Amino acid sequence: MKRVYSLMAMCVAFGMATAQTLKVADIDIKPGDKANVELEIDVNGVDYGAFQANLQFPATGFTTTEETTTVSTWKNGTITVGALKEGKTNIGGLSTSDSPMPNGVVGSFEIQAASDLALGSYDVTIANFEFINGVSDVKIADVTFTINVVNSYSITLDEDATDAPKAASGVNVTVKRTIAA
To answer: What is the tens place of the pLDDT at every residue in 80-93?
Structure first.
């Protein structure tokens, strides 16, 4: 019986020692426009069925869609974001079956910049992010990303890239490559 408990303790310790991560790319948005915030995670081999966190935006200038289930690439997973109140809201994700969160972009939610929002950079913090599986829940360090309010969009092309560049919503991009012989 001691062996079983020792093995369980090692598994729990290993699960807590792994480094789960959350990444959110900086976003460019024009005043009055909407943009998607993508949540990219690495669960490092641990099965998590849920997450929760707090979003801290600047006090004014941005909105989220009230209590909306967002786009999710997580099979049978839903992500819900509350309406911003004084720049704060909650976000949570939950599997509606036994499907664990995948690595990569797990989903996104939409924000909108006020039409009179001043151009500039605004930091947003995702605080108290917790991966949940009921056995070895893990809280990670706060993650901050920047929303750049701009008057035009720019796209940087990498000539060595193998994927097409991502464009802002509503922007069509055609990529042509010239190869010197």
So the answer is: 888 888 889 999 98
Q: Is a pLDDT exceeding 70 seen at residue 136? A: yes
Say what percent of the chain tops pLDDT 90: 37
64: left (phi over 0), alpha (psi -120 to 50) or beta: beta
Q: What phi and psi, each to the nearest 5 degrees, are found at residue 32?
A: 85, -10
Alpha-carbon gap, residue 53 to 139, rounded angstroms? 9
Per-residue confidence (pLDDT) for residue 6, from 0 to 100: 38
| Burial letters 123-154, b for 16+ CB under 10 A, else e | ebebeebebbbeebebebeebeeebebbeeee
The candidate with the shortest Cα–Cα distance to 79, out of 46, 37, 113, is 37
In angstroms, the CA 112 to CA 59 distance is 14
**Residue among 92, 3, 87 at smallest CA distance from 48:** 92
Please identify which residue in the block is written with the tokens 């976000």.
91
Pick 174 or 107 by higher pLDDT. Answer: 107
pTM over cut 0.85: no
Tokens of 65: 């869609």
